[in-house]
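Quick question: who can interpret this fold?

. . .
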Amino acid sequence: MQAKETLFADLVQGRAQQFQVPLYQRTYAWTEKQLRQLWDDVLEQAELLESGDTASTHFLGSVVLAPSPQNEPTFPRWLVVDGQQRLTTLSLALAAIRDHLADTEPDEAERIDEDYLINKRKNGNDHFRLLPTQADRASFAGHVRGPRAEQSAGGSVAAAYGFFRRKLVEAADPAAPQSVFRIEQAITSRLTLVAVIAERGDNVHRIFESLNNTGLKLSQADLLRNYLFMRLPTRGEHVYESYWLPLQKSLTNDELEQLMWLQLVLDGDDRVRRQDLYAAQQQRFERGTASGRASEEAIEAYIRELHHRAPLFRRLLHPEEEQDPAVRARLRRLDAWQAQATYPALMLLLDRRERGELDSADTERAMSYVESFLVRRMLCRVPTNNLGRIFQAVPGQLPLGVPVADGLHRLLSSDNRFWPDDDELRGRIRDAPFYQFGRWHQRKMVLQRLEESYGHPEPLDFAAAQLTIEHVMPQSPGDEWIRALGEETAAGESAEDLHSRLQHTLGNLTLTAVNAELSNHPFERKQDLLKGSHLEMNRRIAATERWGAKEILARADELADRAVALWPAPLRGVGRAERGRDWVLAHQLLAALPHGTWTAYGDLAASIGSGAQAVGTHLANTPGVANAYRVLTSEGRISDGFRWGPQDAGGDVRARLAADGVRFTVNGAADPAQRLTADDLALLLSGADADQEEERKEQEQEGGGGEETRADRFLRQLATDDSSGTVAAVREVLARWEELGGWVGHGTGRVTTSAFLMLGEAGPPGRGIWPLVFYPGGGRGGTAEVVFQHLAAREPFTDRALRLELLGRLNALEGVDIPEGKLELRPGFRLSTLEKERDRELLVETLSWFRDRWESRGTA
């Protein structure tokens, strides 16, 4: 057996060969969590290459190989005993890079293909440099053959390929472009592997077990603690009693590890990652010493400094421990925002205040810049993927000779930090779908701060109030709303398009705790409730005569004035790059379209805060946009203005759509069931169903108590516009679900509640699972939402085949036709479907099957 360090490029390129994943191996299983971590590591390596640092590579893991029984002297074949997830992922990333370059750099795309993905002169299965296990083979082969090939829908392989296509579009943002060739180089030549190559006859399975049965893994804090106290032979007991023991009592092990990492960052190390803490601190101790070992005095000074900074760090975790009320308020808001990425800057401010370099007033002012930086970026839909790098760089990049608060203001205002100015903020508040960006608690906090800005003489206790975010113009508008909107549409725009464009904007949103039965009804019926609200923003809404596009935009402008006053603007003239309309998000959404789906110009426009005509013009004039031909009119027809770009392959659009799995009706329109709405598009890039997690965590198994339980509220809301037959059918299904061993959790919303069909415990996220959520319709009939997106992250339904079987069972219900392209989303069907006894029986059988699959997880 041989073991050596290698690179992906050295392992796979240079000659015709093949790496075969044995049939007994599990299928490809990396989820977005692992993909995001890998992508972050790749981008970090690409940035190091850009800066000229060629020393700090990233260790990716091991690969265990053994000669294949099909090995030939002229065509080596290797069995991949361990490491197939890494090899498959890197191959898919390179396939995505090749396809990203195909239109503009065809020669480079061909080079990548031949260097890493294919054996050019081999046919059949031998054509592929990597041959996955049989269950993944067809999907992998389709993506390696290229974007024009027949590709199977869905699955982990397709999801990983789609992830990298989206990220490459994001990396091509003209405001902060990242070289795709640097990314390729990082993948092929900066991710190190340990290749364990067995000889024929070696017990490769014993090797595999030895590598993977390592027991409980020590944390970075554990490793560093052991290192420290091994180097305190004479002073260890004193240091432990005086400094270390109090540290362990005040912080958990995870918090202590975070503080150790922050200590390195505060010392100016803007590159160290938390997972590399032990090695980085060890190098720091031993650098510059004659013996290569740190002295006891240096070790003790380090631990003493950790002890000194622990109370400062605790204030970030527990803001109530901060004495100054203004600073405490800022820390509370940042804690509520879950702004852990800002910890390096916040620790620097508290540390400098402790040293007397700034007072509490300046500390609070500096924290206002941090809060504004986060909130303005969220309101303007600036991606959060670089927040960690921005704030980790603060201690090392803070300008010298300038007061700390002023220096932080200048630093965050500088080029490529993307702190939106007042003009961009006003525009985004007016046009962008606020409700579909950021986290649920962040959106609620923005609305709370806006309400507080009115200075109500008797301010509401927001901590005690049960407030939810309400759409004044409802998400499911009745006929009266649609008729009123029809009077305000622009040329070529339908009332439905106008509703889609405005419904999620900030001007249409408020906080409320009013009774839910009016939530989706005409504005006149809402006014009386809003007049009695304790919130000033609701009283102002109630004072208007009507509620349409004009009023929504006027309120957006009013809220924008308050946002500009609440959250300070960046400095002008510091070299920051102005951001024009951000089409990168549109390109990402199109790159993420699942097989067998299409979207409309209006849907795409509503998702990015634009207009349908502007979207059409952009796509017509921008070559190389992935899946641009899958944007159709709202009727599902190819736009008269559509034309292929100069780099596109061209051909018949309908034939290309059919090859992508899009069906057509008898009148020649794309199947409306396969259309992705603006809400569906928002789910494509959300990563996880965070908002449903937030709602689920607030459920109560036995209802809400008080005068009306949550279960009663749900049924009352359902009865508002559904027939008694539908309500009785839903009651029966919920009762039978409980007979199957499940329970029903009801959302806390008073405006719009819900019924989650739950299995498992009601505790922390990850313990429970649910297949369906029932929602009252509020004007258009209740719906059952099938949470495929949620299930894709929970065993055993991470297996796409199980989700596909669930889809087939539900489609057996009369009137239910969910396309396979929505298997990663949250599609729904009308609850009125359940009025038919046969459909109720089929659904209960499906729920019983779901329970059995969940209960048998891990036993197969």
Q: What stands out?
A: The longest strand covers residues 58-67.
